[in-house]
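Support request from a user on the community tier.

User writes: "When I paste my structure tokens into the form, the page sometimes reloads and wipes my input. The last time it worked, I copied everything first. Here is what I submitted, just in case something in the input itself triggers the reload:"
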């Protein structure tokens, strides 16, 4: 009788656990469902600027970002995606963190709106993949380990994924630290390193926002553009040619698909493209005219305007 009660209690707890709404609120279950990522044999960092800088990922707001692509031992590819949070007029939109199985090797950007049981709503996120042992907020971080620092309901939680199947980065050739030319110190990811104080240990990975592809000085590279009939001018190649990620811009040509440019996303800032609102930002707006500036928004008190290339910018 006692054994039956224990069994029934266990079944009830399991059912309650599995019936959580979309598993969005249970961080422990999220971690349990993603432990198979530890078997990854390849890692590809897709948004270098968010890694290892001890800063909360907040910009651009209400935007999906693909952070990491991981390949496991069975050949499956997973994308770690994050939708940044946003607060406006005392209304809070939480961040959404999810890990999605990539299908047909189509790139992580095609998994942003795909449903996944490995999903959780959070308040803040920091991400680390150090190339040497380091310490962050009194927490010791080791190489070959992906770390997520998650804040939810004013509580900080560290989740870590040791990637033992990935070779440790080499530190035996100091010449690699002597230039600003991109280096591949971590397998399968490209980074830019600060050449100052090369002899110091725990060199910090940095990405210089003026290094290349700066929209404000007209050096950015388009990687997917459309004409007035929404036909490709430049076919999509962002995942192959953009070293530091890519972002979308609102144009007055095609309303259904935004153009895309290589570089770090600084949407909403002065002299940079406006942030696209997205199709479900306001359920009352079914469809906006193609030349309506309400299709994007700026930060602070900046104004929206179309530039000479038909791109919605902030000024």
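"...and here is what came back when it finally went through:"
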């Amino acid at each position: 009788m006692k054994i039956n009660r224990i069994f029934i209690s266990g079944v009830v707890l399991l059912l309650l656990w599995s019936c959580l709404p979309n598993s969005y609120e249970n961080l422990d279950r999220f971690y349990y469902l993603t432990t198979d990522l530890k078997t990854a044999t390849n890692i590809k960092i897709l948004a270098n600027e968010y890694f290892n800088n001890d800063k909360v990922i907040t910009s651009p707001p209400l935007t999906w970002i693909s952070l990491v692509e991981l390949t496991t031992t069975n050949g499956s590819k997973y994308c770690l995606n994050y939708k940044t949070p946003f607060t406006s007029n005392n209304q809070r939109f939480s961040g959404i963190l999810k890990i999605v199985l990539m299908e047909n090797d189509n790139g992580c950007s095609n998994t942003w709106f795909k449903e996944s049981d490995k999903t959780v709503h959070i308040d803040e996120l920091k991400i680390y993949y150090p190339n040497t042992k380091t310490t962050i907020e009194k927490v010791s971080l080791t190489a070959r380990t992906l770390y997520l620092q998650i804040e939810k309901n004013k509580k900080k939680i560290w989740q870590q994924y040791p990637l033992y199947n990935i070779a440790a980065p080499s530190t035996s050739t100091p010449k690699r630290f002597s230039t600003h030319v991109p280096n591949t110190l971590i397998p399968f990811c490209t980074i830019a390193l600060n050449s100052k104080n090369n002899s110091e240990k725990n060199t910090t990975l940095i990405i210089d926002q003026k290094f290349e592809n700066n929209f404000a000085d007209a050096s950015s590279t388009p990687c997917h553009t459309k004409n007035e009939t929404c036909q490709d001018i430049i076919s999509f190649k962002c995942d192959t040619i953009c070293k530091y990620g890519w972002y979308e811009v609102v144009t007055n040509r095609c309303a259904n698909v935004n153009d895309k440019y290589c570089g770090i996303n600084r949407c909403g800032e002065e002299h940079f493209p406006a942030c696209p609102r997205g199709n479900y930002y306001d359920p009352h707006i079914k469809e906006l005219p193609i030349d309506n500036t309400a299709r994007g928004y700026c930060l602070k008190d900046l104004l929206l305007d179309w530039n000479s290339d038909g791109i919605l910018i902030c000024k």
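Agent notes: The reload is a front-end session timeout and is unrelated to the input. The first strand starts at residue 42 and ends at 45. The mean pLDDT is 76. Escalated to web team.
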